[in-house]
Design goal:
- This is glucan endo-1,3-beta-D-glucosidase.
- Belongs to the glycosyl hydrolase 17 family.
- The protein has 369 residues and is α/β, with parallel strands linked by helices.
- 36% of the residues lie in helices and 14% in strands.
- The strands form 3 sheets. The protein has a 9-stranded parallel β-sheet.
- α6 packs across α7 and α7 runs parallel beside α8.
- The longest helix has 24 residues.
- The structure holds 2-acetamido-2-deoxy-beta-D-glucopyranose (4 copies).
- One 2-acetamido-2-deoxy-beta-D-glucopyranose binds next to loops.
C-alpha cells in the first residue's frame, strides 16, 4: 500500500507539468447524454477533468455546455446533427449561421478542435438516409468555408470531419482486402477523401472490436479482441505480409487499405469512438467491467505511446482517439447492451480503473524510483 502511494506520488510529480504535446497524446471521452439520470453539465465536466481526459466529444453543439467548457483546458469536438445536413448543404447562409451560433461565440476560449458533420450517416440506408449521404460532402465544404470567412485566424486549426462506422467497408478480413461499399465508394467516399486530404482533416472512425468478436466468439480469440498481446495468437495477412497482434489494428488497417485503393495514402485516421460494454442486462456473454477495463486500458496504452505505435500498415502514426462513453445511457435504443458502455455509472462512480494519460501503463516510466 505504501509502495502504491509512493508510486502514485511519483507519477503525480512527473506528470505535474503537462506540455502541450503531452496533453495532446491523452485520450478524449465521448460525452453522450441519452439518459434521464445523468449528472449536470458542470458535474460532468468536473468528472471528465478528474479523469485526466484531454478532450471531450459531444453529439451536438449545446451552447450552455460549450459555455461551461470555456473554463476547462479540454479540447472539444462538436457535431452538426444529421437532420441539419441537407439544409446546410444547399444554403451557404445556413452554414454561416451555424458557425456564427455554435463556434464564434465560444472559440477559442472553448478549445473547439473539430466539427463533426453528422454521425454515422452512411449506416442509414433508407431512402431518406441516402439523400443525406449525397449532401454530406457539400455540407462539410460549406461549414469549412464559413469557418474561413467568419472564424478568423483562431478557427483555422479547427478540423471538419464526419464519423463513420465500420459498415462503410465491405471487407475487413484480411485487412488488405479492405474496400469501401460500392454504393458509396465513388459517390461519397471519393469526394470525402478528397476533402479530408485537401483540408488536412482526419478520417474519423467509430470502431469496435466488440461487435465482430461478439458475433463470432468461437472463431475470434477474446484476448485478440481485447488487445491482450499473446505469444502465439498473431495473424499474418497473406496478401500484404503484415503481421497483426490484435483485432483493432486489423480493422483500422482495412480502412487504410480501402483509402489506398482510392489513391489516398496520407489521410490520417482518428478514432471517434471505441470501447467495450461493461454489462449487458444479461443478454450477451463477454460484456462486463473486467473486459471493458482491459480493453480501454489497452487502447489507451497503444494510442498514448511515445513514440506512436500506429498500425502495421501505418507504423509510427499517431491516432487521436476518443473512448465511448462517459456514462451508461439508459435511453439509448437497441438491445440491452447498448445502455452499458459507460466508464462511469450515472452516479459518477467508475466501473473500473482507468488512466487516460496512459502514464500508469508506460513501462519506460520507472514505478520504483
Ligand atoms: C438560405 O437561408 C437564408 C437564411 O435562413 C434564407 O434567408 C434564404 O432564403 C435561403 N436561401 C435559399 C435559396 O433557400
Ligand atoms: C506475436 O506477437 C507478439 C507481440 O508482438 C510477439 O512477442 C510474438 O513473438 C509473436 N509471435 C509469433 C508466433 O509471431
Ligand atoms: C493529397 O494531398 C496532397 C498534398 O496536398 C497532394 O499532393 C495529393 O495529390 C493529394 N492526393 C490525392 C489522391 O488527391
Ligand atoms: C489524474 O492526474 C493527476 C495528476 O497527474 C493524478 O493525481 C490522478 O491520479 C489522475 N487521475 C486519474 C483518474 O488517473
Amino acid at each position: 500500500m505504501i509502495l502504491l502511494v509512493l508510486c502514485l506520488f511519483y507519477l503525480l510529480t512527473i506528470s505535474g507539468e503537462p506540455t502541450d504535446a503531452k496533453t495532446l497524446r491523452n485520450v478524449g471521452i465521448c460525452y453522450g447524454r441519452l439518459g434521464d439520470n445523468l449528472p449536470s453539465f458542470s458535474e460532468s465536466i468536473q468528472l471528465i477533468k478528474s479523469m485526466n481526459a484531454s478532450g471531450v466529444k459531444i453529439y451536438d453543439a449545446n451552447p450552455d455546455l460549450l459555455h461551461l467548457l470555456s473554463d476547462s483546458e479540454l479540447r472539444v469536438s462538436i457535431m452538426v446533427p444529421n437532420g441539419d445536413i441537407r439544409r446546410i448543404a444547399s444554403n451557404q447562409s445556413l452554414a454561416d449561421e451555424w458557425v456564427e451560433r455554435h463556434v464564434i461565440p465560444f472559440h477559442p476560449r472553448t478549445r473547439i478542435e473539430s466539427i463533426l458533420v453528422g454521425n454515422e450517416i452512411l449506416s442509414d440506408s433508407t431512402e431518406q438516409g441516402k439523400q443525406v449521404w449525397h449532401a454530406l460532402v457539400p455540407a462539410m465544404e460549406r461549414i469549412s468555408s464559413s469557418l474561413k470567412t467568419r472564424g478568423g485566424r483562431s478557427a483555422r486549426g479547427i478540423r471538419v470531419g464526419t464519423p463513420l462506422a465500420m459498415d462503410m467497408v465491405v471487407s475487413t478480413f484480411p485487412p488488405s482486402s479492405g474496400a469501401f461499399r460500392s454504393d458509396v465508394r465513388d459517390s461519397v467516399m471519393a469526394p470525402l477523401l478528397n476533402f479530408l486530404n485537401r483540408t488536412g482533416s482526419h478520417f474519423f472512425l467509430d470502431v469496435y472490436t466488440y461487435f465482430p468478436w461478439s458475433s463470432d466468439p468461437s472463431h475470434i480469440d477474446l484476448d485478440y479482441a481485447l488487445l491482450v498481446e499473446q505469444e502465439n495468437v498473431n495473424y499474418t495477412d497473406p496478401e500484404s505480409g503484415l503481421t497483426y497482434t490484435n483485432l483493432l489494428d486489423q480493422m483500422l488497417d482495412s480502412v487504410y487499405f480501402a483509402m489506398g485503393k482510392l489513391g489516398y495514402h496520407r489521410v490520417k485516421l482518428a478514432i471517434a469512438e471505441t470501447g467495450w460494454p461493461n454489462g449487458d442486462g444479461g443478454d450477451v456473454f463477454g460484456a462486463n467491467s473486467f473486459n471493458a477495463g482491459t480493453y480501454n486500458r489497452n487502447v489507451i496504452k497503444r494510442v498514448t505511446s511515445d513514440p506512436p505505435i500506429g498500425t502495421p500498415a501505418r507504423p509510427g502514426e499517431a491516432i487521436t482517439s476518443y473512448l465511448f462513453a462517459l456514462y451508461d445511457e439508459n435511453q439509448k435504443p437497441g438491445p440491452d447492451v447498448e445502455r452499458h458502455w459507460g466508464m462511469l455509472s450515472p452516479s459518477g462512480s467508475p466501473h473500473y480503473v482507468l488512466d487516460l494519460t496512459g502514464d500508469l501503463y508506460r513501462p519506460e516510466i520507472p514505478l520504483d524510483p
